[in-house]
Design a protein that fits this description.
Blueprint (H helix, E strand, L loop, with lengths): L5 H18 L3 H7 L6 H7 L20 H15 L1 H21 L2 H13 L3 E5 L15 E5 L2 E12 L6 E13 L2 E10 L5 E3 L13 E12 L3 E2 L5 H37 L1 E2 L2 E2 L4 H32 L5 H30 L9 H9 L9 H10 L6
Parallel strand pairs: 1-4
Antiparallel strand pairs: 2-3, 3-7, 4-5, 5-8, 6-7, 9-10
């Protein structure tokens, strides 16, 4: 079924070594300074992390099958050390590369993918707006076509990888008309530096301090007609599929966070002394560690199953509905478990858990967004309930 192979485990160790040697020694400083280490992105590209789902002709790994599972393993291992670098990879592939790979023309792929796969560049995906998040049909950004040019006006919010010094393009969703009385949504690629495209100052965020996140504005921003990604009016369908895949990736990020909480808590419980013995000798602490272990194991299995189903679907052996259902379940359980895991870990660490020099404090801040991004927990419950005919 979805059992990991020796190649999977060997790959995991490579990514873990990279995370522990290149990220862990600097993460506290980067987090405190809200510094995005763009120099790490090409190194991640050299490891092949951005090309795991990409054919060789565009610089990718060219894996016949199983590329998405490898990607989830990489996200998990980066997220175990730092959630920000985990989401950089997750968004870089799932929201940056995948829409172009899935819906782009060969010319569009040849233009953008080689640099994105190598880590020389990053791409963003502009879906969320100040007044349109889960209700993506409420998109207000508009694009009109005249004389071979799209003119885009509107704003996007909370866009990852959109303002780095190596960001090359952002794909944005926009209204391009109406169809059957409903907004017609299309996806259009906007290269960085295009006149009228403004990257707003970085947000001051609760967590994910190292990750690059900006609002975007478009004021009579013009791009060529051929920058349309896929067919006009198909943007809504395109981003729904993109979000399905992204939910599995976020689940992997949550697994990495929960695993870190388990590892840190178990070690601390064995070394922290109180009343003449390790605090882990007390059931109040040891039972919390046991609960963490259960959440990690269940979250990981749900995530790996969803990733396996995604790979099976890509190979023509599973349906979209199966992937969508598994992705929603994995995303819901693993992200809510991750938030709980940080609360338990902080409690085990006591006062030290409230101090920034201990990683559990950073993980506590980073966790909450997992229940929001790529579809809130409420949206996941709605999607799951629909499978049983319970939500219209």
């Amino acid at each position: 079924m979805f059992e990991l192979t020796k190649d999977h485990e060997d790959f995991r160790r490579v990514v873990r070594d990279f995370a522990e040697s290149k990220i862990a020694p600097h993460v506290e400083e980067w987090d405190a300074q809200a510094h995005f280490p763009s120099e790490l992105v090409p190194q991640m590209g050299e490891l092949g992390l951005f090309g795991l789902v990409v054919p060789e002709e565009y610089g990718g790994a060219g894996l016949d099958e199983g590329g998405f599972t490898y990607l989830c393993l990489a996200i998990e291992e980066l997220g175990r050390v730092d959630q920000s670098m985990g989401i950089t990879l997750s968004a870089g592939v799932g929201l940056g590369i995948n829409p172009i790979l899935t819906y782009g023309t060969d010319a569009q792929k040849q233009r953008f993918l080689p640099d994105l796969v190598s880590g020389k560049a990053l791409a963003g995906f502009g879906l969320t707006e100040p007044d349109a998040g889960s209700d993506a049909g409420a998109t207000r950004t508009r694009a009109t076509l005249a004389d071979g040019q799209w003119t885009i006006n509107g704003a996007k919010a909370f866009i990852t990888n959109s303002g780095t010094d190596i960001t090359s393009v952002v794909t944005v969703t926009a209204r391009t008309g109406e169809q059957d009385g409903k907004p017609q949504i299309s996806a259009i690629m906007v290269p960085s530096g295009t006149p009228g495209f403004t990257v707003e100052p970085a947000y001051r965020k609760l967590g994910w301090h190292i990750s690059d996140t900006h609002g975007l504005t478009f004021a009579n921003c013009q791009v060529p007609e051929e920058n349309l990604l896929g067919e006009q009016g198909q943007g809504y369908r395109q981003f729904l599929k993109t979000l399905d895949d992204g939910r599995i990736a976020i689940s992997a990020l949550a697994v990495g966070l929960a695993q870190a909480c388990l590892d840190l808590s178990a070690d601390y419980a064995k070394t922290r002394m109180a009343f003449g013995r390790p605090i882990g000798a007390n059931q109040g602490v040891s039972f919390k560690v046991a609960d963490l272990a259960v959440m990690v194991e269940a979250s990981r299995l749900l995530t790996y199953k969803a990733a396996w189903l995604k790979d099976e679907h890509d190979a023509g052996r599973r349906s979209v509905a199966e992937v969508k259902h598994a992705a929603a379940i994995a995303k819901l359980y693993s992200t809510e478990s991750a938030v709980t895991a940080t609360r338990l870990a902080t409690q085990i660490f006591g006062g030290n858990g409230f101090m920034e020099e201990y990683p559990v404090a950073r993980f506590f801040r980073d966790a909450k967004i997992l229940e929001i991004g790529e579809g809130t927990s409420e949206v996941q419950r709605m999607l799951i309930a629909r499978q049983y005919g319970l939500v219209s």
